[in-house]
Amino acid sequence: MNIGVFQAFLIALFYYFSQSPWFVGLGYWILYRPLVAGTIVGIILGNPVQGAIVGATINLLYLGFISAGGSLPGDPALAGYLGTALALSSGLDVNAALALAVPIGLLGTVIWFGRMTLDSIFVHWADRYAEEGNMRGIVIANVIAPQILLFTISFFPVFFASLYGPQAVKAVLDFLGANILHMLIVIGGMMPALGIALNLRSISGPDTMPFFFLGFLGAVYLKLDVIAIGIFALVIAFYVVKNRRVVSADGN
User: Fold this and answer.
1) N or C: which end of the chain has fewer CB within 10 A?
2) Which tens digit of pLDDT belongs to each residue from 120-148?
3) Which N-terminal stretch is annotated as signal sequence (predicted)?
């Protein structure tokens, strides 16, 4: 399956939107997530169900994702958009797509750190314009120039990778053969455990782990689906927060 020019354009554009400020509350919080990215790519390529499956599987890798202090261990958005696009266009197994998404996410750190480094130049521009009282210059330095830079370094790499990447992926897979592909599938199948482990590490504690085991028991032994467990969790969370407020109000 080849990706057309317009399809590659949309995939790259959504990747840019995932990091841009144009849609308040939509970019980083929603479009940046691999599950959403995979679904969008699936819609663009005409296979939304498989796109959502691939995106959700990639999302497992980033359950414990934290970007603190300007650091970025990997780029979930790039793994989601480009990883799903290459997986669907190349007909990859979901687990093989995971093995492909990991290095793609790491390559996204190059875009991130390049952006942060070059954006520091615009800070000095803004300082100079502020001293001059030039409001138009401040807007250019704080908004226009950084977004032109972000569009350039995020849109074009994803556009060309989406357009020409499937042929390269197919050629590499044909060269590696079935045994190597099987190894990638096995490795990819193990990777979600890493994301789950990181998530457990972040939530582990005497006040939170009982709720985790309660959800686990509900899923395994009571055979509840995710929606039912989510509703029960919402009700429990409501009463826990309410009781804590009452205790805080009483001063005990």
Assistant:
1) C
2) 899 899 999 999 889 999 999 999 999 99
3) none
